[in-house]
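Minutes, project check-in
Item: structure for the 212-residue chain
Input as provided by the requester:
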Amino acid sequence: MNEKQNSHIEMTKTNNREDEFIVREKKILSLLEQELEDGESLAAEAKKMISYLLVEKKGYLPEDIEKKVVFEVKLGRETAYSSVDFLISVAGKKAMVIKCASGSLSSRERQAVAAARLIGSPPVPVAVVADPVNAEVLDSATGKVVGEGFGAIPVRDRLIQILSEYSAKALTPDRLEKEKRILLAFDAIRCCVPQGADGGVSLNKGPVACKE
């Protein structure tokens, strides 16, 4: 076998390896795209569930509810924007944030608590994480889970009572910086689980809040 034939064989092997790599990459990308689509679908289902629940079962008024609320997070010289799926205000005060997601709710708890601590001053007292089948209610002051299931989400009268008993103060500068770093870290990695189109951190994008 001459040198030209050897060169041709080696080139063929190289091309075959490259083709296998491309095929493997396409399969991985396809799986990731499917995972993102599934995550977005589950998050959307959770938002529909919560939207119905708040008005029809929990007694909230449409004007109490803000959806897809984006808020500014300044860290050093950088300005980023984070979001919650629902912000509930009663008696003119921010009272509860809700983040909807797919995947493990426990992996979202700290993210929701950080959002509750940063979206208002003083911090919003109640944080909720929810998927289409379950929910967890957290005390933003302690970060502890205080209720599980959709039934644990406080009704409007109970939330008014929580506000009347709430005496949290504004965060110290050190705590504020820590919460910002925690929230943006979670937003950036999305807990390694898709959140849907409205999740995650955005740079150089103005805040948006809409009511529906």
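Outcome recorded: Confidence is low (pLDDT under 50) at residues 31-39, 191-212.
No further action items on this chain.
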